[in-house]
Amino acid sequence: MALPPDLVAGSATGSIFDLGYRGYDGPRLGRRHAISTLFAQSLKWTFGIGRGGRAKIAPFALAGLTLLPAVIAVGIRALAGPAAERVSPITPQNYLSAVQTFIAFFVTAQAPELLGRDQRYHVLTLYFSRALERTDYALAKYAALVCALALVLLVPQAVLLLGIVFASIDLGAGLGEALPLVPPILLSTIVGAAFFSGIGLVIAAFIPRRAFSAGAIVAVFLVLSGVVSVLVVQGRLRDPFRYVALLDPYALLDGLASTLFGAVGSNVTVTRSGIDPGIFAAGACVVAVATLIVLVLRYRRIEA
Amino acid sequence: MPLIATESLTKRYPGPGGGVLALDALSVEIEPGIVGLVGANGAGKSTFLRILLGLLAPTSGRASVLDLDTASHGARIRERVGYMPEHDVLPPDLTATDLVAHLAEVSGLPRTAARERTADVLRHVGLFEERYRQIGGYSTGMRQRVKLAQALVHDPRLLLLDEPTNGLDPAGRDEMLDLIRRTGTEFGIAVLVCSHLLGEIERVCDHVVAIDGGRLLRSASLASFTGRTGTLIVEVDDGADDLAADLVAAGFRARVDGPRRVLVAAQDERPYDVIRDAAATRGLALIRIEPARHRVEDLFRDDPDEEGARGTAA
């Protein structure tokens, strides 16, 4: 079919429709839309969605590994019945401590992805020249990683709770046991996800190269917790010094959970330091807030 | 009301020895149109743009864009301004479509509108099937187009372009300049183009703002810039000395520039005839007579008569 000549632009190609430039008169949703867009994109990015197959391996493998203990615990409970309390090592009360290493690895893998890339390729310039403040960027990225991590941790805990409900003799008793656990689960997971994410993001914000920042994050989680627990357990530290226990991120996580559940924690740093678990819980909250503040300040100053 | 207005805008980057003074009490008003911002590297062009976007706070002075103060209304300015940075800012692991659509949403467009405008704008800048490939595999020309597309995608009222032809080959340069010209004329978007190449500014702009060392050198229409200097480059096969002597004898300012070139100050058309006659009389092989092109350096000469004659020697 012959086209009217004025519709065909560029005689060299001859097949491109040039409809002229069209302006945009639709709504402009401004800064809040900018923040929610960045948040949603970062959340998807954390799980490798929209990034091709290889980017999905790490987040989904780690999500699978955090789910595994819950599935095993439910299986044991189904076989052993109510006696499982004594048999199964995994309970809602100590679940976060049971998967602490996977949480650390998730943050190690994803925090540099979320921040380092935009710095390395100077994408920040494109963000900050739009309807987005620097603080918004930091908040959106922080919220995205916290949500991603909370999601990864809440699914297995939901499985644990369902296991309790359905393995009980009658539904009423099961619900009676499971429902009071919901608030401490939510709170400990969100605060725990926040301070783990915060540590990872602050490190990633200062070290744009992925390999280096991932190394630094692993060092903080694994080496710091290892060194501190050795010091606390072997060192017989006296008073001001035993508070080095608060530098162990795993101890903070365990203290947080045991405080919220009102249960005895499983972390040796907490139990052997003789410090009240509530102080560890407070420490976790302080780290969550402090890392967010450092992140915001970092992005106020960062060159873009 | 001007599109951009600055009042003794000063920016000093901290550093040893008092730091670097990037902008020195720059006051200028820029009206809508296609405006060129010319200056040598380090003249303060990029700093100027970044202050206009509210990305950088001035040390003193103030600036307004679209009637909004940059210090207090940065976000609202950025919502209606498109910025094409000088350096590479594109993540290699996204496709042009995904990146531009995402940035359109960050600019405040709803999702569907962002997708539609992305397709429109990428087609406008001349990216077709490539837009579904990852940017990492793009040529410099394609990257520059993506950078222009992301600046245009939210239909800004003002486009700030920082060295848009950086790294392009001559053909890519021509296409980019043509795109900028069309953006300013057909799309009705005001454009401020930064460049250190006056030749490019000449081709696309109506108005030129020249800065040097952070100070305003001149702000005037392009015509007033080009009307000022007249220098002819005359190239002969041999006997440049003789030709220059003849021209000086005829009352022109002329000097030899290299073994085969003579530079003649020409305020009107008279030198052409004299050159022709002199060449004919002496039997010189006249290769070309060409009006000298402006260069950015020419703008920074103090003496307007001297400037053309020396500028061409570079």
Across the major sheet of chain A, the strand order is 1-2
CATH-defined fold name of the largest domain in chain B: Rossmann fold
* Parts with pLDDT < 50 across at least 5 consecutive residues of chain B: 302-314
Major beta sheet summary of chain B? 6 strands, mixed
CATH class of the largest domain in chain B, please? Alpha Beta
Describe the structure.
- The complex is a heterodimer of chains A (304) and B (314).
- Chain A is mostly helical and 304 residues long.
- Chain A has helices at residues 30-46, 54-80, 84-87, 95-98, 100-120, 123-128, 134-167, 171-178, 182-206, 210-235, 239-242, 249-261, 268-273, 277-301; strands at residues 8-9, 16-17.
- Chain A contains 14 helices and two strands; from the N terminus they run ββαααααααααααααα.
- Chain A has one domain.
- A two-stranded antiparallel sheet of chain A has the order 1-2.
- Chain A is globular.
- Chain A starts with 7 loop residues before the first strand and ends with a helix.
- In chain A, β1 (8-9) and β2 (16-17) form a beta hairpin.
- Chain B is an alpha/beta fold and 314 residues long.
- Chain B has two domains: 4-226, Rossmann fold; 231-311, Alpha-Beta Plaits (2-Layer Sandwich).
- Chain B has twelve helices and 14 strands.
- Chain B has helices spanning 45-52, 74-79, 96-106, 111-124, 140-152, 170-185, 198-204, 222-226, 240-249, 270-282, 296-299, 304-311, and strands at residues 4-13, 20-30, 34-38, 60-65, 68-69, 81-84, 158-162, 190-195, 207-212, 215-221, 231-236, 254-256, 261-265, 286-291.
- In chain B, the strands form three sheets. Chain B has a six-stranded mixed beta sheet, sandwiched between helices. A four-stranded antiparallel beta sheet of chain B has the order 2-1-4-5. Chain B has a four-stranded antiparallel beta sheet with strand order 12-13-11-14.
- In chain B, β4 and β5 form a beta hairpin.
- In chain B, α4 crosses α5 (140-152).
- Chain B is globular.
- Mean pLDDT of chain B is 86; it is low at 302-314.
- Classes of the chains: A mainly alpha (304), B alpha/beta (314).
- The interface between A and B is large, with 34 and 40 residues.
